[in-house]
Specification:
The chain is an alpha+beta fold and 262 residues long. The protein is built from four helices and 14 strands. It is globular and about 50 Å long. It is an enzyme of class 3 (hydrolase).
Length: 262
Amino acid sequence: MIELKSAHEIDKMAVTGEFVADTLATLSAEAEPGVNLMQLERHARTLVSDRGATSCYWDYAPSFGRGPFRNVICLSVNDAVLHGKPHDYVLGDGDVLTLDFAVSIDGWVADAAVTVIVGDSTDPADSELVESTERALAAGVAAAVPGGRLGDISAAISDVAAETGYRVNAEFGGHGLGRTMHEDPHVSNRGRRGRGLLLRAGMTLALEPWWARGSDRLVIDADGWTLRSADGSNTAHSEHTIAITETGPRILTPSRSAHHMT
């Protein structure tokens, strides 16, 4: 079932979204060469606690993971793209790091992800990869209008991937959210315009294009959580929580300027 949110409820989600965006900006700026992933995890825990927020990841135990997940942020490096479990790893110059973060504040959830390139040694192909997911996210958001179809969002995302030659995995994508992190509907990163669910004002969605420089297949780490590109190629992932309103899409996790890319 899809719950349509009132303007007041969307405003409450936006409060959570602002905290999510601020946290991602803070941690992205700290992701420098020599920083251990566990330092970022510990800082995230402190920020969550100080804000009185509730992590959506802590104790999360879905069917696809080896639960429960005992961290408050997903940190995925290089060929890791989704559900990256923070561990003892020191970031190096040129590492591609995705930070994915979701919390609940006063009963309302927001979820977002950013990918940054650590340090100064930037492979142009990695920059292009990250930027393509950001462009795809913007295209998906622009398609989220009342009277449209869910397939319009999916097609807008996959069109950007196709233009730049990236292959899209349709297994993991975006989702509804609101009172909990994962609600209906599933939002595929691949689809056809004019198909699927009718988009209505009051829907709140997490849109999250992600892909790799190479394979669209994933393999799972021994930790039971971290998903990596099957061919070991670098990956990127961009995500916003949005609301569909009568006047168009509203981004509830507005980006802060913390990118390391030039």
